[in-house]
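Everyone, describe these structure tokens:
***
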Amino acid sequence: MGDILRDTPVEGVCRLTLNRPDALNSLTFAMYAELVDHLEAIRYDHDVRTVILTGAGRAFCAGHDIRGAGKPDWVAEGLGKAQFQQRVMAKLGQIPVLMHALPQPVICAVNGVTAGAGYPIALAADMTIAARSAKFVNAFHNAGTGHEMGFSYMLPRLVGMQRAAELMLTSRAVMAEEAAQIGMILRCVDEEALMDEALKLAEAVMVNSPIGLAVTKGSMWLNVDAPSLEAAIEMENRAIFMSQSTADSAEKRKAFIEKRRPDFTGQ
């Protein structure tokens, strides 16, 4: 068993838990690779309707483990520093890309501190909720820059350029309540309610058809950079045609009229 636990708290929900609580869930090279493997497997798992990503213990993720990260086994021995770092960051960069690429919505439940690499992972979720004690820390400058893993792409789109500039250039920490106020996360909740709220959000998502969710999520992320309103509408129209031609979409409409929970079959 690795340092990322996978379980099913309720039917349809895959929960991934970063599980190095004694190290505040700081990430090892093995964990980066393991998380990539989990995300790639989930992408094609029909039984998974929604993903929840969280951390064990009193932190979500304290970033890269600078003392005990081990070695990246996907990088060949004997490379120069630049070549080594390029290959390391290529693997790390897969994580937010895969989170966006999943057809299933991803909910991040942030408990406690999230710093360094944990920060962009939290922002890459489709929806992020946090305990009131949660703290978002830009620790990237400790490694030489103020960004990595798509942080400079995601943060301005969430909070705007001026606020992103402040947070990226000063490294000021952001508490959960402020993060919710500025739109960096969906909302903050009481500590003891965090997982219940994440599961409620997952349940609210899963009343919609899997293909409807997949094409809606895909349109949402692609249309962030759509070149025009017309292009965005064309993307939506194609998604609508695809979704409405399925039996699951018909089942969703029927269940809504009959005021019952839909029974999706993947057809």
Notes: The chain has a mean pLDDT of 92. The radius of gyration is 19 Å.
